[in-house]
Structures are given as C-alpha cells and as structure tokens.
Amino acid sequence: MYRALLLISFLVINALILYGISAVLSYLNTGADKSSILHLQAEINEAYLPKIVWGDLQNQGRPMEEQTLKEIEKDYLSAWHVRNIAYKNNDTYGLADYYTDSARVKVYKTIAINKKNKTTIDRTTLAHKPSLDFYSADGTLVVFTDTNVIAYKETLVNNKVVFREKDTTSYKVMMLLEDGFWRIRHMVTIANKKEPAAINTKISTKEIVDIKGLNYYPKNSPWDMYGKQFSDSIISADFQILKDMGLNTVRVFVPYTDFGEANVIPDKLEKLKKVLKVAEKNEIKVVLTLFDFYGNYDIIDWTLTHRHAETIVTALKDYKAVLAWDIKNEPDLDFESRGKEKVLAWLTHMANAIKTWDTQKPVTIGWSNATAATLLANEVDFVSFHYYKKPSAFAASYTALKKAVPNKPIVLQEYGISSYSGVWNAFTGSHKKQALYYKEMQAVIQENKIPYLFWTMYNFEKIPTSVVGTLPWRKQPQKYYGFINSDGSKKASVEYLDEK
Amino acid sequence: MNKISCLWLVLLFLNSCVPVAENKTEAILNATLITKKQEYIAGQKIILKYRISGENIPMLLVENAYGTSLIQGRKEHNEVVYIFPSNYSNRVGKCSFKLIGNKEKLDAGDIYIHPAVTKTRNIETYMGPPSIIAGGKDYTMLVNVPLDTYDNPLADSTAVTINQQFNSAITTTEVKLKNFIGWKNIYAPEKSGRILVSALCNALASKELNAIVFPANATDFKIDYERVHKYADGNQVVSLKTSIIYDEYKNVVSDGTLVNFIIENKEGTKLYASGTTISGIATAKMLHPVVADRWNVTAYITGAAKSNPLLVNFESAVENYKISHSKDFRTITVGPIKSFMKQLVPDGIIISCAIYNQNNKLLETKTTTSRKGIGTFYLDTDFYSKGAYQIKIKSMGLLKETNIILHE
Questions:
Q1: pTM higher than 0.90
Q2: Dist CA A386 CA B355 (whole Å)
Q3: Among A60, A442, B200, B229, which is most exposed with the fewest C-beta within 10 angstroms?
C-alpha cells in the first residue's frame, strides 16, 4: 500500500515537472510571427469599408480616370480611417500619410485639446456620396463635395460614454497628390442636402404570423452548413419532409467569418442561393439569421459588417424563399462582454442599413428571451424571442411580451428540449419527456396562434466546440434536440409537431 | 426581541446594503441659448452663453471638419459661458455645437464661420504640366488657392488676378474663386520660350511661376552629304547632314531631336545611322563602302517628319591587282593592291580566296586582310594533295580567277 502510494506520487510529480517544462517551452515559443520581420505591407483599406458611391464626375479641369478615382477613394477613406483611430486614441499616428503639412496641424491641435480634456471620440462613417468638382490638368489636385456623410460617433470622457449620436454632415474637400499619396489639404463643413427618406415604413408582415417551422441544420453538418459536406439534394429531401409535416418555414444561419466577413466568399453565397432555391421548390420560406458567431460590435468594425450584410442582402433579396432578415442570433448574450449600448447601437444601425438595401422584407432580431425581446421593438418589423424554460411558464412570458409590444407580430423563434438521457443529466431526459414538452408548448402556441420555429430537426452526432464550449454536460444534451434520431427514425415528439 | 422586530432589523440591514444610486436623478436641465449671433469671421472669439436651470453644468460638444471636442462651461452669475477653442473659431465652414447633459442632447445649433478676407496671407499656386508645346493647342493649368491667415480657403466669387508674360507681352485676366480655387488654362503661344505667371488676390501676390514652351513637332526637312572623295575605299567617312529643322511655327526643333538616316544600297540592303539635332541640325556618319555603290538616303524623325531622298554614288577605288604564286604554287600572293592614286590601299582590306577542286566543288574559303597592300594565302600539303585546283580571289569588289597545279 505504502509502496504503491510512493510509486504513484513519483509518477504524478514527474508528470507535473514535464508539464511545467513543456508549458515554459511553449510559452517561450509564442510571439511575433516570423514573417513580421519582412514588414509586408498591410492592406489598410480592408479595415475600413464605408459605402462610397461617386456621383457626378464631370468637371471643367480634366476628365477623371477610373484608376485615379480609385486611388483618390482609397486614400480619402484611409484619411478618415486614420483620423478615426487618432481621435479614438488621441494619438497622431498615421495622420501624416493622409493630411498635408498644414492640414494635419489642425487635427493635431484638436487632438491636443481632447487629450488635455481626457476626451476621446470613437467614430465611424457609414456612407459617403462624393461628387467631383475639379480635377487639375496635371492630375495632382482634386476638389470634391462629399454630401451627407452618415457617421456614428461616441464621445467619451475618461473612457465613459457621455454622448452617442448618428449625424449627417457634408464636406468640401481638396486633396493633393504628394509623393504617391492623395492627401487632404482642405476640408470645410458645408450645408447638407435634403434627401427623401429611403426607409420603407410599411413592410408587410402578413406572412410572419403564419410561420410554422424549425431552426434548420443538415444532419451531418450542424453549424457548418456551407462546408465541404454541402449537398442541396440532402437539404431538399429534408425540406420535403418538413413540407409533408405541414411546416412552412426554416430558420437558417449565415456565419459571419465562415462567409468571408467583409468580402463575402462567392462560393459560400452560391451554396446559400442553392438552399433558397430548394426551399422555394419545396414551398418552404427561410428566415435568414445573419452575423452568426460575430461578436465584436466595435465601432471600427462597423463598416466591415455593413459590407458583409450589404453583399448578402442585395444578392438574396429577390429570392422568393427569403421571408425575413434576422440580424443576429441572441445579441443580448453579448451585453455583458461588449456593453449593452454598443450592441444596441450596432443593431439599430444594421436594421436601418438592411432596410435601405431591401425595402420589402421584414427585419427582426433573435433575442434569447422574452424580456430582452422588448428592446429595439421600434426598429424591427416583428419581434423574435427564444424560450428554453419550463413550458408551464411560457404562456405568462408570452403574454407579458405581447403586452409590452402589442402592435408587432411576435415569433417564438427558438424553443425545444433535449431528449438526452445520460450521466450528465442523471438520466432525467427521455423521448417521452420531449414529447410531453412539445405537447404542452404546442397547446399554448395553438391557443395564442403564435408563429413558431422549434429547435431542431435532427439529433446531431458532433457539436462544434464554438457552439456550447467543451463541457460535456453542455455538449451532450445539445446532440439530442431533434425530433429525428441520427439513425433517421422519428421520436415520439413528432406526434405533436406534425401539423397534418 | 420578538419575531417581527427581528424581521425589521433584517430588512433595515438589507436596505442599507443596496448601493446608493448615482446622483443623476436631478430634474431635467433646461437650457436656453442667449447668444444669438450665428455668423462669425475666422479668428473672432466665439462665446456661447446659456441660461441653464439646475446645478450641473452640461458640456458643449463642438465639431468642425477637422474634429470634435468637448468644452467645459464656466458659470457666471446665472449664465453658463462656453468659449470655443481657437482651433474651432479659426476654421471656416459650419461648426456645429450640441449641449450635452446626462447623455442627452439639450440643445443644438450651427455657427457659420467665414474666412478672414482682410487677412489674406498667402496664395498657394499649383501649375502643371511644367512644359508645354508651342502652337496654341497645348496648355498648362494654373490653380490658385488664396488663404487667410488661419490657412482657410477664401469664399467663392473672390476675384483673383492672373498675370502672364511672354516675350514682351504681359496679359492680365481675372478669375473668380469657386470650390476654393481660381484657375486658368494658359495656352502655349506659337513661339517657343518661357511663360512667366503670377497671381494676385486681395492685394497679395503669389510667387513667380513659369512654364517652358517647347517647339512643336518637326516639319519635313532636307539632307545633304559631305565627303573627301567619291571612291569606295572602305576608309573615309561620309557625313550625312540635315538642314536646320523647324516646327510648323518656324521654331527650331528642340536640341536632341533624334533623326534616323535610312540608306538603301544597290543590292537593296538597308543601312542605318542616326544623329540628334544641335541647333536644329543632325549629323550622322558612315564609312565609305569598299565596292562601287549607289546609296539612296532618306532621313526620318519618327512619327513627325521626313527628308527628301538623297543619292550618293561611290566609284571603285581599285581598278586591278596582281596574283602571283610561289614555285610550288602553294603560296598565293595578292597585290600589291593600289588605290585611285596608285597609292597602296590602307591596311585591313579584306581579301578572300575560294579554292575549288577539279569537279568545281568548293573546298574552302580563306580570308585575310591586307598589310602594306598585300595579302598571302598558303595551301598546306596536309590538306591539299597534288593536282589541279581553281582559285577565286575577291577583294575591293574585284573577282579574279586562276588555275593552279599543286605538286607534292
């Protein structure tokens, strides 16, 4: 006994020593990527992509060349970008590249004032509409008017936000070509132009109230719908099953990073288009949830997320299968880590932006619970919330939400229960319990005529770590939310989910 | 202590644990702007006065094209005074302000700042391209940006006077500012030279600028040649020379204009020489041919102009030469080759010797150069066994044949 103890403790101590040494070694091996020695030029424009549309290029000086216009645009946006960063950090880094000697001094002075007052400005511009006034014969001087620049800015004192606003400002700008850079020489604020409001306030939500469906992932590629395993025939077969059950809608996710962030990968977009085509063929409508797995919300990131959404929304808005745009899945869960006001500001602007790109389809946000769902009720066309608590409390939750938001349709966008029975939940779940859950839930849903999307179609064999983390008592139950087993047989719950 | 009083105590304790809410519950501030002035001249002090109810002093957010700042107010009697930093009061354009209290906008407005015209400090001038071509089609553009003492561009419609001088003529024009700039295209005169330009705005003068007017494209020209004699001696040099080349406005073309001389000889072979102009004249040199020839010369300035065709004849310098043999016929001596004045040809004249066998088959062509007018060939015993051969000698365009019989 004593000897065994000695032996085991010896082994344990050795293991710990080895672990310690390897931890030190691996720590020493981390650091800058070796390629950073090369000082490869980073593409600054990729970090700042506000919408920019050039208007009239006619001018009395010289006809504008397409190539030069691109260079001017790139340097002008970079000028905004470095200035936004400069005011955010009260640091003049990078300004010299995009402002001439005399112009940069003006920015430096303001930064000095703000530094003294401990004021920082976090700002991004979202839309530029420049039109050319003058381009000189030798191609080194340009004057243009940037009309109604839409900007969002937060003013902070001692790193605390004291004011946030969206504003519209117009500028007259003169830029000079100096050693390869177009630099701002003069910038003067001018009066804005009046523009008709572009947002359609009468978006039809007629189809929303009829939503009957589920949150969809294919059986073998949950959370990786557009990867190598993508097959529109499998998805089509699944949609056929749903149609036969009398369901009419699926909720499908569009992961932000997987889709290439600001530069949407065409291949992924093609796959999504195929999903929409097979959905249309099977008479299934699709609620598209954008920005899955996105969680930055930082103002400096806004232009990138806007370009991502713009590409997807403009590419898909004419597909009949698209029922609605769901901006983000459960953004309220990011309130704690990212700040509630920042997340809400991002959502508000994204909702507005999506409505300018697609004036017909309704917009919603997939809140994680009924309480959060009252937020931004004025910005969305219908309210979506998720419910994973006890079915007995559901009716009260729903009624409270309905009372808070009486004049907009409310969709129960996610709900469900796992049929998992195992060590991690002490063998408490079962197919029968799942069926009972749906029996109870569907009764309330039918009584109140609530549009619903339950979670989910299949049991999944593998759950990516990014979804619920690595803890087995979280991961295991996540595999058994479906009404169809991984072998294809249907569970008892199907009785209450079949609408026919 | 009974149960109820115990409960009260607990409740009291819990109550004291609740964190005290921040003192933000103050009644909504009521702010009235007293300052009515909206238009200022750059450099003037901008002071906004508010009448504000409540104890807290809200901050003023000011913004112009270059940035945004927060200004602290100062309480004076029952007014709150905000002084704009010079970085805002000195910049032209719209300067917007917002009064901020408890994260809310209490008041907002715009101030318009106009340039300090009386303090025009500087005229920035940009002129380009720096060189243009004579003739009135090409132009250079002068762009003026007059600035006030705070580096602000002046208002639209401000007059700018542009003076330009060329040779003895000085012309003055007036342009109006628009979009910060007053600009003028300065067209090239017909004469080449230098245009001097300056600008005036509000009695302030710019620096002197200049543009160089280069002659326009060359027009057709003539060519001629110079040489020491007419013989094809392969030794002297013939100079090909253009006339003075002018553009269409009688300006001598720019020095360094490239002229290509293309020479076609009797056999149709093209020879090529080039020269660049100095004071309008380009010269190229060619070595005399070694054979009597007739050259057809034309000169070109690519894409612009060409010359008249020029004929140059060369006569043969050598009429005849002798071929002699050694006793065994193995050493063949050519020459002495004599030129047009019976002088020996210069060293280095090429002499070739083709050797044929009895079946008229070419065995070898030997080449040598003349030295003191003479060239020799040796037919080695190792290669040429005894027998009859035919020899063809060629030099200075003259071909001579002879039959030899070689012995062992």
A1: no
A2: 107
A3: A60
The tokens describing B349, both together, are 């004249």
- pLDDT tens string A125-160: 999 999 999 999 999 999 999 999 999 999 999 999
Put residue A26 in one of left, alpha, beta given phi > 0 → left and psi -120 to 50 → alpha. Answer: alpha
> Quick check: is B180 in a domain?
yes
| Ordered mean pLDDT values, 10 residues apiece, chain B (408 residues) | 50 45 52 91 94 86 95 88 95 94 90 89 90 92 93 93 92 94 93 93 90 94 93 90 94 94 94 94 93 93 93 89 84 87 86 88 89 88 84 88 81
Residues of A in contact with B96 (CB under 8 A): 169, 189
Written as six digits, the tokens of A389 are 């608590």
Among the three residues B214, B233, B248, which one is the final residue of a domain in this structure? B214
- Of A214, A222, A56, A251, nearest to A145 by C-alpha is A56
Computed over its alpha carbons, how large is the radius of gyration of chain B?
48
Residue A154 domain boundaries: 45-190
Domain shared by A269 and A154, yes or no: no
Which of A208, A209, A172 lies closest to A192 in space, CA to CA? A172
Instruction: Single out the residue of B112, B121, B52, B58 nearest to residue B88, CA to CA.
Output: B112
| Tokens at A445, concatenated | 């849903």
CA distance B260 to chain A (A): 32
The domain boundary residue, chosen from B194, B214, B234: B214
Q: Are residues A440 and A353 in the same domain?
A: yes
- In this complex, is the C-beta atom of B67 within 8 Å of any C-beta atom belonging to chain A? yes
ipTM reported for the complex, 2 dp: 0.80
